[in-house]
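Exercise 7b. Backbone tokens:
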């Protein structure tokens, strides 16, 4: 099994769960930001980035991001990356491919999530460290 597709699927599901469960109990010293610009290539590859800060967890912590344009109900997942939670600020960058005509250069809306997969029996449960939403500009590569 390839790790990236599985990680992207987990992160996409976590982003959807985030809206439902919120960030109750999140440490106010933990944060995630989104850079004001992203990049989209002609083939639909999107690159988003920002910063994060988190404290140590008991499971792997992941950065997920999704982007939308004209319809906020159509969010497209943009990759995922593993976070290092040591209390220091770190950069994150996620890359993902959407349908070539799904997004284009111009204004966009990004939701980024810093989420931990905490061990809980057979299935790890998501615990949200930080969530943010930001309007950005997607530039053509």
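Sequence design result:
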């Amino acid at each position: 099994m390839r790790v990236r597709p599985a990680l992207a699927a987990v992160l996409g599901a976590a982003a959807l769960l985030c809206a439902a469960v919120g960030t109750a109990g999140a440490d106010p010293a933990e944060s995630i930001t989104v850079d004001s610009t992203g990049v989209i290539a002609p083939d639909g590859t999107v690159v988003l980035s920002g910063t994060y800060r988190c404290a140590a967890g008991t499971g792997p912590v992941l950065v997920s991001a999704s982007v939308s344009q004209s319809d906020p109900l159509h969010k497209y997942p943009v990759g995922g990356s593993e976070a290092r939670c040591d209390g220091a600020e770190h950069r994150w960058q996620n890359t993902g491919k959407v349908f070539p005509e799904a997004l284009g250069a111009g204004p966009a809306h990004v939701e980024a999530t810093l989420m931990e997969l905490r061990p809980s029996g057979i299935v790890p449960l998501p615990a949200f460290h930080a969530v943010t939403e930001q309007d950005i500009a997607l530039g053509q590569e």
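Instructor comment: The beta strands are 31-32, 37-40, 45-53, 61-68, 76-82, 89-97, 106-118, 125-140. Helices lie at 3-21.
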